[in-house]
Specification:
Blueprint (H helix, E strand, L loop, with lengths): L2 H13 L4 E2 L24 H4 L9 E9 L15 E9 L5 H15 L7 E6 L11 H13 L5 E6 L1 H7 L5 E6 L1 H4 E2 L13 E11 L21 E16 L2 E15 H9 L11 H11 L7 H19 L8 H18 L8 H10 L6 H35 L3 E2 L1 H10 L4 H10 L3 E2 L3 H20 L12 H21 L5 E6 L4 E6 L6 H17 L3 E7 H7 L12 E7 L7 E4 L18 E10 L2 E8 L1
Helix pairs in contact: 3-4, 8-11, 9-10, 9-11, 9-12, 10-12, 11-12, 12-13, 13-15, 16-17
Bound molecules: adenosine-5'-triphosphate (ATP) and magnesium ion.
Length: 626
C-alpha cells in the first residue's frame, strides 16, 4: 500500500465506524500563541479532550500534518523527519480500549496487511504509589489478538528504558510493560509531572520489528524502546482514563477518552518492510529527483538527500499554509530549513538553483489529497524559488567577503567565521579558495577545529549557568551597562544588517566593551547614528523583561546570542520593548535593569568613546553612560 492509500483507507476505516473525518489543522496553530507549530494530531484536539464539546461529535478521525522543528538534528536517520503526517482517531467520552485495540489490530493487519508476527506492543506497568494499576486489561486484549493468529504472546515487565537495555527480550515475548516515563500520557509527562486538574492516563504503543541487527552502541540488549532502529514506534494509543485531582491523587474519569496517533510515513515504511521512511511513496520521488539533478546516488549520499528531501517538503507545506521566510518565528524556521537544504545540496555538487525542479515534485505528491496544495501550487513554488535566489546572494556576499579576508591566505579562523556568519560549509570555503587561487594557511584545519572546540567549551559553561566574559557583576552599574550592550547590538544590526553579531563583550563599573564582525572602520557619522539610536531607546523608556524558553524555541523566535554560543536546554530570553515594538531580543543570562529609562538617570547619555580594530574582520567599541 502506498502512503496515500494508507491515509485514505484509515480515514475510511474509521468513518465506517461512526467517525467524522475532519480536515487537518494548519501547521501554524490558530489560537495558541505558546507554540510555533502543530506538532501532533492531538494538539488541536486538546480543548475537546479537556471537556469542550466538539462540533463534529464524539468520534473524530483525521490526518494531521505536523512540524517538529525540535527533531531537526535527528533528520538524516531512517525514521525522523521535521514534517510528517499523523493519522489519528479520537473518542471523546465515547468508546474505549475494548474497541480501540481490536480496531488498530484490524487496521494494521487486515487493511494495511502488516505481518502480525512483526508487531510488538508496550503497556503501562502501573504506579502503585498512586493506586494506578498495571494495564493488564490492554495487554490481555493484545495477547488474545496475537493468539488468534497462532503467534506467541509472552508478556514481560521492563520498567524504564535503562531496564530495557539491561534486560532485553526473551523468547516468545511480545508485550512489554514500561513505567511512567514511557507509557503514561499527560500534557507534561509522567504521573508526577501531570498538571493538577488535567486528564491523563496510560498508553499503549505499537512497534514494528524490521529485524535489523541490534547496535550495541545504544545499550547492551535490544528492546522495543531501543533507539538502534530495529523496532520502530509506529503509533500510540492513549487511554485517557484519569484526572489528577491533587498532588498524588488520580481519580478515574467517568467518561474516558481515546487519543490515537500514528506516523503515516512509518506505517508506510512498515508496509514496505523497509526501515527507511525515505523509500515510501511520498518521499522516494523527491529523492529520485535529487538523484537526477545531482547525478549522485542515494545509496552513497543518504544523509544529504534525506535532509534536503525532508526540509523541502516541510518548507513546501509551510508555504501552503501561508508562511513566508523571514527573520522571526515560523518564517525563521522556514528560512532555516531552506538554507540548510541548499547547503546540503552543495555536498551533492548542486550549486545552481534547483528548487524550481524539486518543489513541483513535492506539491504533486499532495495535490490529489489536499485541495489547498493544488490551489496554492504556483504561489508556493514562487515563494520558495525567490528565497533560494536571495540566499544565493548572501552566499555570494560571503564569497566576496572571503576574498577580502584572504588578501594573504585563508586562515582557520576565517573559515570558521564564514561557516558561522554566512552558513558556508567548510568544503565550500576550501573549494572556493582553490578556484580563486587563494592559499590556505597550513594549520587552517587545526585552527578551525580549535575554534569549534572553544565554541563547545563556551556551551558547557553556559549549560552550567555560569556566564563568563565580564557578565559576572551584579551591581546597578553592571546592570545598566549590560542593558546598554543589548541596545548597542540592536543599533549596530539596524545599521549594518542581521549578519552582524556579538563576538565578545566585557563589562566593568566604568564602561562596556563590545566586539562584533564588521569589515570597515566606523565613520563619525555612523558612530553618531548609533548613539542616537541607543539614546532614543533610553528616552522611550521601554520595559525590559525575560522569559525562559526551550532553547530551540528561543532560536526559532529569532532571539540572538553571541557568535558561536551553545546553550543549555532552556535559556532566558530578554526582550526590550513591548511585543509590538521589540527593540532587542537576546538570549542572555542577565542581569538587566527593569526599563531602559534607568540608563538615562541623572541626565546621562550613551556615548561611544572608542572604536578600533580587535582582530581581522572584528571591530571593538567602548562606550560609557555619562
Ligand atoms: P520517537 O520516539 O520515535 O521520536 P515520539 O515518541 O516523539 O517518537 P509521539 O510524540 O508519540 O512520537 O508521536 C506519535 C507518532 O508520530 C509516533 O509513533 C511516530 O509514528 C510519529 N512520529 C513522531 N515523531 C516523528 C518524526 N520526527 N518523524 C516521523 N514520524 C514521527
Ligand atoms: Mg520524538
Amino acid at each position: 500500500m502506498t502512503a496515500q492509500e494508507i491515509r485514505n483507507s484509515y480515514l475510511k476505516f474509521f468513518e465506517e465506524r461512526g467517525h467524522k473525518v475532519i480536515p487537518r489543522a494548519l501547521l501554524v496553530p490558530q489560537n495558541d500563541p505558546t507554540t510555533l507549530f502543530t506538532g501532533s494530531g492531538m494538539q488541536p484536539m486538546i480543548p475537546y479532550l479537556l471537556g469542550e464539546t466538539h462540533p463534529e461529535g464524539v468520534r473524530i478521525v483525521d490526518s494531521q500534518t505536523c512540524l517538529r522543528a525540535m527533531d531537526i538534528e535527528e533528520v538524516g536517520d531512517n525514521r525522523h523527519t521535521t514534517f510528517f503526517e499523523m493519522i489519528g482517531n479520537w473518542s471523546l467520552g465515547d468508546y474505549f480500549k475494548a474497541e480501540q485495540v481490536p480496531w488498530m489490530w484490524e487496521f494494521l493487519t487486515e487493511v494495511v496487511k502488516l505481518d502480525p508476527s512483526k508487531l510488538y506492543i508496550t503497556c503501562f506497568i502501573g504506579a502503585p504509589e498512586y493506586d494506578i494499576p498495571k494495564d493488564t486489561e490492554a495487554a490481555g486484549m493484545w495477547q488474545k489478538l496475537f493468539e488468534s493468529k497462532g503467534l506467541s504472546s509472552g508478556v514481560a515487565d521492563i520498567g524504564s528504558e535503562e531496564d530495557g537495555y539491561r534486560r532485553g527480550i526473551k523468547d516468545g515475548e511480545r508485550i512489554f510493560y514500561y513505567d511512567g516515563s514511557k507509557n503514561w500520557w499527560s500534557r507534561n509527562g509522567n504521573p508526577e509531572k501531570t498538571p493538577v486538574g488535567d486528564p491523563c492516563g496510560p498508553d499503549s504503543e505499537m512497534f514494528y520489528d524490521f529485524g535489523t541487527p541490534h547496535n550495541p552502541e545504544y545499550g547492551e540488549h535490544c528492546h522495543p524502546n531501543c533507539d538502534c532502529g530495529r523496532f520502530m514506534e509506529i503509533g500510540n494509543n492513549v487511554f485517557m482514563a484519569y484526572r489528577k485531582e491533587a498532588e498524588g491523587k488520580f481519580v478515574p474519569l467517568e467518561k474516558p477518552n481515546i487519543d490515537h496517533g500514528s506516523g503515516l510515513e512509518r506505517i508506510a515504511a512498515a508496509a514496505l518492510d523497509d526501515p527507511d521512511v525515505f523509500k515510501i511513496s511520498v518521499m522516494w520521488p523527491i529523492v529520485q529527483k535529487l538523484e537526477a539533478i545531482s547525478g549522485k546516488r542515494y545509496d552513497s549520499h543518504q544523509e544529504s538527500m534525506r535532509v534536503i528531501a525532508d526540509h523541502l517538503r516541510a518548507a513546501t507545506f509551510l508555504a501552503v499554509d501561508g508562511v513566508v521566510p523571514s527573520n522571526k518565528e515560523q518564517g525563521y524556521v522556514m528560512r532555516r530549513l531552506l538554507r540548510r537544504a541548499i547547503r546540503f545540496a552543495f555536498e551533492l555538487g548542486v550549486e545552481q538553483n534547483f528548487l524550481q525542479d524539486v518543489v513541483p515534485v513535492i506539491a504533486d505528491l499532495y495535490v490529489d489529497d489536499y485541495p489547498e496544495v493544488k490551489e496554492n501550487r504556483e504561489k508556493v513554488i514562487e515563494v520558495l524559488v525567490k528565497e533560494e535566489k536571495a540566499f544565493r546572494q548572501t552566499l555570494r556576499k560571503g564569497i566576496a567577503e572571503m576574498q577580502k579576508m584572504a588578501s594573504g591566505e585563508l586562515s582557520g579562523a576565517d573559515i570558521f567565521r564564514l561557516y558561522d556568519t554566512y552558513g558556508f560549509p567548510v568544503e565550500l570555503s576550501t573549494e572556493e579558495a582553490a578556484i580563486k587561487n587563494v592559499e590556505l594557511a597550513k594549520d587552517w584545519r587545526e585552527e578551525f577545529d580549535e575554534q569549534m572546540e572553544e565554541q563547545r567549551e563556551r556551551s558547557k559553561t553556559a549549560a552550567k549557568g555560569a556566564f563568563k566574559g565580564g557578565l559576572g557583576g551584579h551591581t546597578m552599574q553592571h546592570k545598566k551597562y549590560h542593558t546598554a550592550t543589548h541596545l548597542l547590538q540592536s543599533a549596530l544590526r539596524q545599521l549594518f544588517g542581521p549578519e552582524l553579531r556579538q563576538h565578545g563583550s566585557n563589562i566593568t563599573e566604568e564602561r562596556l566593551r563590545f566586539d562584533f564582525n564588521h569589515d570597515a572602520k566606523l565613520t563619525p557619522e555612523e558612530i553618531k547614528q548609533l548613539e542616537e539610536l541607543v539614546n532614543g531607546w533610553i528616552a522611550e523608556d521601554v520595559p525590559v523583561k525575560f522569559t525562559e524558553y526551550p532553547t530551540q524555541e528561543a532560536l526559532d523566535m529569532g532571539a540572538i546570542g553571541p557568535f558561536g554560543e551553545r546553550y543549555a536546554d532552556t535559556v532566558k530570553v530578554y526582550q526590550m520593548g513591548p511585543d509590538d515594538h521589540i527593540v532587542s531580543l537576546e538570549i542572555c543570562g542577565g542581569p538587566h535593569v527593569d526599563h531602559t529609562g534607568q540608563l538615562g538617570e541623572d541626565g546621562k547619555k550613551f556615548k561611544i568613546t572608542k572604536e578600533e580594530s580587535s582582530s581581522a574582520g572584528i571591530r571593538r567599541i567602548k562606550a560609557v553612560l555619562q
